Each structure stands twice: as structure tokens, then as C-alpha cells.
Amino acid sequence: MISGNPYMPIPAKLADVIDETPTIKTFILEPDEPMAFRAGQFIQLTLPGVGEAPFTPSSSPSDPGRLAITVLRTGAVTERFHECTVGQTLGLRGPFGKGYPIEELDGKEVLVVGGGVGLAPLRALILALLGDMKGVKRMSIKYGARCMEELLYRIQYDDWPTHKKVDFACTIDKPENGWDGHTGVVTTLLKDLDVDKANTHAFVCGPGVMLKFTTFTLLDEGFTPDQIFLSMNRRMSCGMGKCGRCNIGPFYLCKDGPDINYAKIKDYPNVF
Length: 272
Ligand SMILES: Cc1cc2nc3c(=O)[nH]c(=O)nc-3n(C[C@H](O)[C@H](O)[C@H](O)COP(=O)(O)OP(=O)(O)OC[C@H]3O[C@@H](n4cnc5c(N)ncnc54)[C@H](O)[C@@H]3O)c2cc1C
Ligand code: FES
Prior knowledge:
Layout: E1 10-19, E2 24-31, E3 42-47, E4 51-55, E5 67-72, H1 76-82, E6 89-96, E7 109-115, H2 119-131, E8 138-145, E9 166-172, E10 182-183, E11 200-205, H3 208-220, E12 228-231, E13 247-248, E14 251-252, H4 253-256, E15 259-261, H5 262-265
Parallel strand pairs: 7-8, 7-11, 8-9, 9-10, 11-12
Antiparallel strand pairs: 1-2, 1-6, 2-5, 3-4, 3-6, 12-15, 13-14
The structure holds flavin-adenine dinucleotide and FE2/S2 (inorganic) cluster.
């Protein structure tokens, strides 16, 4: 819930920095006031004097006093975030967007498909469901990274499938010395899926090209557009439906998304 001036960031102390991969770090932030959020909602992270950028917390919504933000170094602002050190003060504003429709998952199976740093927003969903599977029948997690050293949250892969209703599979794009797991892009994990397809919701997050081919693969596998939810993490500015930077047709991804049902957007141009 946003209170006060939505353009004014809340100061947040950088309590820890985790080196996840050569290009990805997770920042643990303790805001001056707890920032309640739903899994899938995003925040704007500010580095005073440098700029701000949108990120979806990768931690469980059950701890609004300590948020994890996982950041891929890709350009000017994220480069400067990666130089931040413990004890520094950053800013958070939000949360924005709708968040994942967790209340619609009762009685369903959940398929989580992540590519690269796209596992970060999905981890909030995974942790929220692990904390309370409610009526969710099963969660199947499929993840792909470019190479072994870019596998995100590797330390957690053994833990997730210890939950009896959860299975996990990951892949890297090409064979590498020291890797005896699956190789091929993440869509290769989606063939002949062992899920109750008619009763499964799929949540997909990753680079644009991965969203596109994952969507087409799921459709080929028999999913219908309304069973597919895409994280449309495009360029955003205000986060509140005011600047017009993020729309697809009539939908503002910052307000109506960023996770949006494919059935709603599939007929508009430039979805992918
Ligand atoms: C709702 C939302 C949630 C996001 N969550 C995360 C997250 O959890 N972790 C994370 O690492 N990133 C996330 N992103 C992407 C992140 O906001 C951008 O990577 C960041 O703004 C880039 O800023 P920059 O100044 O470093 O890069 P720029 O200098 O602006 O751009 C550098 C390169 O990154 C590309 N780029 C910039 N913005 C995006 C974007 N939104 N999507 C894809 N490519 C982009 C540019 O095209 C360019 O190639 C999210 C984006 C949105 C909109
Ligand atoms: S980011 Fe401004 S309208 Fe969506």
C-alpha cells in the first residue's frame, strides 16, 4: 500500500549484498518503514544522485521489513547499484502493480518457468507458495540459465524439491565441463510435461525472446492463452499509469501487470 507522496522514496539501509553470479547480486534492504508487498508487485529502487529502476522483490512477502532485490548488471544504473556497499542508504518507492493472482490458485497446479535473472521475481511467488501452499496441488519449477556460473540461487535448488508437492529442474544452454545436468534452452524442459495441463497455471519470467518461445511452446503443449501469465518487465517510469511508457493496447503494465494473462494481450501488436 502506498502512503504519502508516491514519488518520494522511503530510505532503506543496505544490510547485505550477496554475489549470486558474475553479473547478478542480491541486495538485502531494510526500509525505515516496513514495505508490505504482494509477490509479483514491483518497487522502484533509487540510488540518490544516480537514478532509479524498477525491480520485483525476490524475497517472501512475509518479511516486509527486509526485502531482497536481485539485480542483473546491464547498464548505467544497475552498474552503479552493483558498486553499493553494506551500510549505504538507498531508496524504495512502491509497491506498484497487481502481483501474482495467488488467490486464484486454489485447487490448481502451478508451473513456474524462469530464464536468467527472470527467476528473481518468480522466487517471491515460489517462497510465498512454499510458505503456504494453501490449496495448490503441486508446483513444478523449470529454470534455464546461459551457463553454469549464471545459475541463480543455486544453493536453493536442493531445498525446493524437499517440499513434497514441489519439483524442480534446471538447464544450461550448452554442455560445459563439470555439468552433468540437462542442456538446452528452458523450453526443452517443457516437452511432454508431467502436469495436469487442463488444471495448471503457468507463470513465466525472463528475457523477451524467452517469454515468446516459452509461450509458443506452452501453446503447442496444449495450454490455452488464459492459463499463461507473463511477466512483462518492460521499461517503466512512473509506475502508476501516468506517464504512458508501458502500455500494450489498453493495459498499463505498471498497473495492470507487470504479470499479465496472455489471453488479455495476445491480439495487440508488439507483445513480444
Ligand atoms: C516491473 C519490472 C521488474 C523488474 N525486475 C527486475 C529484477 O527483479 N531484476 C533485474 O535484474 N531486473 C529487473 N527489471 C529490469 C530492470 O529494471 C532493468 O534491467 C534496469 O532498469 C536497467 O537499468 P540500467 O540503467 O542499468 O540499464 P539501461 O542503461 O537502461 O539499459 C541497458 C540494457 O538493458 C536493457 N533494459 C533496460 N531496461 C530493461 C527492462 N525493463 N527489461 C529488459 N531489458 C531492459 C536495455 O535495452 C539495454 O540493452 C525489471 C523491470 C521491470 C519493468
Ligand atoms: S510506467 Fe508510467 S504509465 Fe506505466
